[in-house]
Amino acid sequence: MQSHRVLKPTTHGLHSPDGGFHVDPPRGVERALITHAHSDHARSGSGAYLCAEPGVGVLRLRLGPKARITGIPYGERITLGSVQVSFHPAGHVLGSAQIRCERRGEVWVVSGDYKTEPDRTCTPFEPIRCHTFITECTFGLPLFHWRPQKEIFDEIARWWGENQARGCTSLLLSYSLGKAQRLLAGIDPTQGPIHVPRSVARFNAAYEAAGIPLPPTLPMEALPATRGRALVLAPPGSSEEEGVEGARGFTSGWMQLQRHRSARHGAGAFVLSDHADWPGLLRSVKETGATQVLATHGYVDPFVRFLREQGINAGPLEAPGSPLRPPPPRTKGDGIPGPIEGESPT
Question: pLDDT tens digits for 195-204?
Fold first, then answer.
């Protein structure tokens, strides 16, 4: 089949000229299709937004009450111009989606951010057959292998319990949308009181409104009464991080790297990511059956090189310097790159 370029990289994001839309545009456009509501993918200023139906609530919190947002049920096909579009589960956060675009029989899929291990807070990842697969590769190096999440939650429970035995409050740094809710769904709430700031509580309410049950939490103002027993879930860099005295922990795929574990968090470093690990990325590429793979948002060069060595027609989404392809991450003393600035480092 002759390959048509269904989507084109532009300074306004991936663009479909025949469909009249952009995917995750970095600035305002007429019509934006959004993979999920994290701030590096969902930005204000567009005339209209389309997203997967379960993600409408969290996207509205991100964009504000005046944004024109239309939710499309997973798997339902709509026609925009001469392009058929549908949203499919990505397993990243509530409402996260891969976007399938079909024009004249040519199918492209934009993965957005995704993870392949199911959890209770979002619809599991669903591989979609396509000709071209545009995939993230945030953790696109062979050293990134995730352990089963139950083992990580057991580690968090032991850490919290050890802190309680010392009369020490536990502060677990976690992003307000996605990671905090996943932690709440996996932690045993009978172990002790759990506090969250307003930035987390408002997303909790959106999850519960979407039918995702979460355990009750307490506001930060109530912390003096539970100090020494409590677990606090708060975003990194927030006022709560500076204001809470106690043991600090962090949950991220970057905790796989020893320098991140030892630099700040020690025993409170937990390898729990909302992105696919190396085996998950490779499995997803295979399951799509794609004859072309375009990589973006992460370790693009080593990931592309490995796919090519396996005989897969792979390349970067765009040439170096494109706003859609972040610059290579800076290496440190161990030669392993660290998080790319501007990414969701989860």
Answer: 999 999 999 9
N- to C-terminal Cα separation, the chain: 38
Query: What span, in angstroms and rounded, lies between the C-alpha atoms of 12 and 14?
Result: 7
264 in the same domain as 250: yes
CATH assignment of the domain containing 191:
3.40.50
105 and 38 in a common domain: yes
Interhelix angle 179-186/198-209, nearest 10 degrees:
70
Q: In Å, what is the CA distance from 141 to each residue of 133, 269, 276, 331?
A: 19, 20, 11, 14
User: Looking at the DSSP assignment, which residues form a beta bridge with residue 32?
Assistant: 22, 49
Q: 274-323: per-residue pLDDT in tens?
A: 999 999 999 999 999 999 999 999 999 999 999 999 999 999 997 433 44
User: Would you say residue 168 lies in a domain?
Assistant: yes
Residue 278 domain boundaries: 8-143+274-316
Prediction pTM value: 0.91
